[in-house]
Specification:
This protein is of the alpha/beta class and about 425 residues long. The protein has 13 helices and 14 strands.
Length: about 425
């Protein structure tokens, strides 16, 4: 019976995507006065410290929009299930949200294991997904077609970030030979995909070394990079693997600056590698910016803080609440563009593709011509370290060295 139901729904989804232009019938989850969306996310368990503020950011944005009358007379209703960061539960709830709750769209699809378990099903169904809380490389698609067009990544995907890191090496550090240490998990191999693509475009030589994800001893890889006499180093790895790579480079005698993923640009990561900063500088990408030139908050960030203070003051300073806010912003932008036209999946997808969408805390994302590559405009940050004293704790600060820029802007094109 389940398979029969899925077959019927698949036929309906294909029909809605192929026949909705000019149709007067709205998609599922849409009434004259409401549009229903949802997600599943880890709001209990080990990842609740991410999932709870993430969803709070979504809900705060929707509450702000609803208080102003909604979009085209429709308020937004948000349904959520706690999948505990478990792929099997994520798939169960995805099916429930689509088939039982009849949501119009996923907003804030949360976490790599959930994406891996649900993306095939959701693509088959053709339901829009706006914002993925992951950089997993399988979402990277520069020429989406058919139901693939219903996917709208926002935060940087690892292949796109790999491209940006190569652009930084060339444009900001005049590199002609780049060393690359990459971990053999999804994040590392996906970043490498973008690194190789951008290096080929710019005729730049790469010295690439693979390391085992989570390995404790990366001295051989570091020595190989040092002996290759590179101009700049990209650390295509996250968390522990990235820190171990950077520390191994310092032990191997490297004096060459390096860059790592935005995922690592945190004070806790800085504390792991602070001792290397006497030998070389460590940089990271960043995809949001909340400060004006005079160091005051931007208008968009102040709005987020004001609304979050009213909704749940616990998350006023949460970066995860910020990302939820961004997810909701992108979804609402599509609704606004559809306006008073029929709210169908096809009309919504076309609206999202019609013009680049501005991140309230950063650059633009262009979904035209099937581009599904997430954020490619990123800033450059540098790690600074102030040692502890008798009266103060150590400070690890990632300060902006270059503003959010596109790859072409970084390369001076």
């Amino acid at each position: 019976m389940k398979k029969l139901l899925l077959s019927v729904l698949l036929v309906m989804a294909v029909f809605s995507l192929t026949a909705c232009n000019g149709s007067e019938e709205s998609a599922q989850g849409v009434t004259e006065t409401t549009v229903t969306v949802g997600n599943s996310a880890a709001t209990s368990g080990a990842l609740a410290f991410v999932g709870l503020p993430f969803n709070a950011g979504i809900e705060a944005y929707f509450e702000m929009v609803n208080d102003e009358g909604g979009v085209s007379g429709r308020t937004i209703e948000f349904k959520h299930y706690d999948d505990e960061f478990n792929g099997a539960k994520g798939l169960t709830y995805a099916e429930k949200l689509v088939e039982d709750d009849q949501i119009f769209s996923f907003v804030g699809h949360f976490g790599t294991p959930i994406i891996g378990a649900t993306e095939t099903y959701l693509t088959e169904m053709g339901i829009p997904r706006v914002y993925y809380a992951t950089g997993v490389g399988t979402l990277f698609n520069p020429s989406a077609e058919g139901n693939e067009r219903a996917s709208f990544p926002v935060q940087p995907l690892y292949p796109a970030e790999g491209q940006v890191m190569v652009a930084r090496a060339i444009g900001d550090f005049n590199a002609s030979k780049i060393g690359v240490i990459y971990s053999n998990d999804d994040s590392g191999t996906s970043m490498l995909e973008g690194i190789e693509l951008e290096a080929e475009k710019n005729n730049v030589e790469l010295e690439i070394v693979e390391v085992e994800f989570g390995a404790a001893d990366l001295s051989a890889a570091a020595i190989k990079i040092v002996e290759a006499d590179v101009d700049f180093i990209i650390i295509a790895a996250n968390q522990g693997s990235a820190a171990t790579s950077i520390k191994a480079l310092e032990v191997a005698g490297s004096d060459v600056d390096c860059i790592t993923s935005y995922v690592n640009a945190s004070p806790s990561f800085g504390a792991l590698i602070a001792e290397t900063l006497d030998s070389f500088d460590v940089y990271a990408s960043a995809w949001v910016d909340i400060l004006n030139d005079d160091a005051s908050f931007t208008e968009e960030y102040q709005l987020f803080r004001d609304e979050m203070e009213e909704y749940n003051s616990e998350y006023v300073n949460s970066v995860y609440a910020m990302t939820g806010w961004i997810a909701a912003h992108f979804f609402v932008e599509g609704l606004t563009r559809v306006g008073d036209d029929d709210l169908t999946w096809e009309n919504y997808i076309n609206a999202m593709e019609s013009d680049p969408i501005k991140n309230p805390f950063g650059g633009n994302i262009d979904y035209s011509s099937g581009q599904r590559v997430g954020t490619q405009a990123m800033a450059l940050t540098k790690l600074y370290y102030t040692p502890a004293t008798d009266s103060a704790e150590a400070v690890y600060l990632w300060d902006v060295e270059q503003p959010i820029q596109s790859i072409d802007s970084i390369l001076g094109k």
